Amino acid sequence: MKAIYFLVGLLTLASSFASAYDPSPLQDFLFVNGNIFKDLKVVVAEDFFKHVDPGNVVNKLGSNVTPVSVNELPGLNTLGISLARLDFAPKGLIPPHTHPRATEILTVVEGTNRLFTKVLNKGDVFVFPIGLIHFQLNVGYGNAVAISGLNNQNPGVITVANTVFGSTPPISPEVLTKAFQVDKKVINYLEKQF
């Protein structure tokens, strides 16, 4: 009887070792994560390539984000990575936002950016943990460029102002006036911007 208990215990222990690993997310060219990829027989190099031009920064914010996620580059499906090119006019802003599914690592390629109280220059790198609200502001007098790497093929982005003042259905002005400690006229003005 002791031998049977020993054998069951040994098999239980062995099977727990067999499943105690981090599986690779790579699953080849299947319908995975809501994205359909091609049959292996028709895959071409362009499925793994994308050229990214400078973005148009002539807008209210003076910035442009060009994402390169699984939606723009099908070869990223199941790889767990994406990136974005960030272009800034002088004093351009990428407004406060968060990525609900990814940590972001930002590298300044050209120019000077402010992130919270830290000013980054060409070659500097900064990390934003998953879910942290952050922004980028070009504090220089020339254009700036940064590259963001994200550890998710579809990191998502939630822009704070759009979410708060432009939601559908709208958040009650009574809630917003109390939360932000401002007059209802200010809330009405802000909502009209979105």
Describe the secondary-structure layout.
Elements (H helix, E strand, L loop, with lengths): L1 H17 L12 E2 L2 E2 L26 E6 L13 E7 L4 E6 L5 E7 L1 E4 L2 E4 L3 E4 L5 E5 L5 E7 L7 E2 H6 L7 H8 L3 H9 L2
Antiparallel strand pairs: 1-2, 3-4, 4-11, 5-10, 5-12, 6-9, 6-11, 7-8, 7-10
Helix pairs in contact: 3-4
Major sheet strand order:
3-4-11-6-9
List the uncertain runs: 17-22
Count of helical regions:
4
Overall shape: it is globular
Q: What is the CA-atom radius of gyration, in angstroms?
A: 23 Å
Characterize the biggest β-sheet: 5 strands, antiparallel
Strand content: 25-35%
Brief descriptors of the model:
globular; 12 strands; 4 helices; 194 residues; alpha+beta; five-stranded antiparallel beta sheet; single chain
What does this structure look like?
- With 194 residues, the protein is of the alpha+beta class.
- It contains 4 helices and 12 strands, in the order αββββββββββββααα.
- The protein has a 5-stranded antiparallel β-sheet with strand order 3-4-11-6-9, with no helix packed on it. Strands 8-7-10-5-12 form a 5-stranded antiparallel β-sheet.
- β1 and β2 form a beta hairpin.
- α3 packs across α4.
- It is globular and about 70 Å long.
Summary?
The chain has helices at 2-18, 160-165, 173-180, 184-192, and strands at residues 31-32, 35-36, 63-68, 82-88, 93-98, 104-110, 112-115, 118-121, 125-128, 134-138, 144-150, 158-159. With 194 residues, the protein is α+β, with helices and mostly antiparallel strands. The chain has a five-stranded antiparallel β-sheet with strand order 3-4-11-6-9, with no helix packed on it. The protein has a five-stranded antiparallel β-sheet with strand order 8-7-10-5-12.
